[in-house]
Amino acid sequence: MNKNLIIAIDGPSGAGKSTLGRMLARALNLLYIDTGSMYRAVALAVMESSLSAKDDVAVGALAGRVDIDLEGDPDSLRVTLEGRDVSDEIRSEEVTEMSSIISTIPAVRRAMVERQRELGQRGAVLNGRDIGTVVFPDAHVKFFLTALPNERAERRFHEDRTQNPNVDFEETFADMKERDRRDSTRADSPLKSADDAILVDSTGLSIDEVFETMMSVVQGKSGVRPPS
Ligand code: DC
Q: In this predicted model, what pLDDT tens digit does every residue of 82-127 receive, in sequence order?
């Protein structure tokens, strides 16, 4: 275990953050924390309550009191809400949309940031939108992973199609652009690259090529080698 090593991966959706985060965590024997899944779990809790997503105070209080946990290793990460495995439910379109809305609420962000710091303190690969800027501004290695919008939407479209053969590319593209806009323009912790992040553009590259690039950055910056 590379003790206390924190690797931040931020960027928009569809850039490859979760696949690469998992690969890095596995190669370096670190915990993998998908922070988006935590906002998704809060969104599901809101949908299952009688609260309105517009009630910032009540949604913020709910985020502070629900028990959200991440269990398992990078390849079999499960997300629990009050002890219940919600890993599949939080991938629905409705939860995706709701998580984009409730993640703009400052009290929700405060609760999630606190939990993420707790979970990651002994070393982790974390992916999200504000890891290098807010959650772990002193992370040893920070990446800002991106790709051209058309390619990101293509990847999302192929993923979504495995669950729903009727999805429409134009709709996927429009929804993704709207969520990008919300993520990047919110007042509290908008999606942006930390000044000291390494920009990685995955457009046109294979996952293995991007992984090699990221691994050599990690090795160069932290001196760690994957356990043999
Ligand atoms: O990465 P994802 O699509 O699973 O994230 C779900 C939502 O949560 C997305 O709309 C952005 C938001 N999010 C955030 O605001 N901050 C993070 N660190 C991670 C995700």
A: 999 999 999 998 999 999 999 999 999 999 999 999 999 999 999 9
Which stretches of 56-148 are DSSP H helices? 56-65, 93-102, 106-120
Sheet containing strand 31-34, strands side by side: 31-34, 124-128, 6-10, 141-146, 198-201
**Can you tell me whether residue 139 is helix, strand or coil?**
coil
Domain span at residue 109? 6-222
189: left (phi over 0), alpha (psi -120 to 50) or beta: left
Tell me how far the alpha carbon of residue 77 is from its chain's centroid.
13
- Number of helices followed by number of strands (H, E) in the chain: 8, 8
Number of domains in the chain: 1
Contact predicate 14/176, CB 8 Å: yes
Structure tokens at 208: 């293995």
Q: What separation in Å is there between the alpha carbon of 219 and the centre of ligand 1? A: 27
d(CA 204, ligand 1 centre) in Å: 24
Q: Is residue 21 part of a domain?
A: yes
Nearest Cα neighbor of 194 from 111, 152, 135 is: 135
Q: What is the pTM of this model?
A: 0.94
Residue whose CA is at the smallest distance from ligand 1 atom 10: 100
CB of 13 closer than 6 A to ligand 1?
A: yes
Distance 104 CA to ligand 1 centre (A): 10
Per the rule left: phi > 0, alpha: psi between -120 and 50, beta: everything else, 223 is left
CATH of the domain at 139: 3.40.50.300
Which strands make up the sheet holding 84-85, listed edge to edge? 68-71, 78-81, 84-85
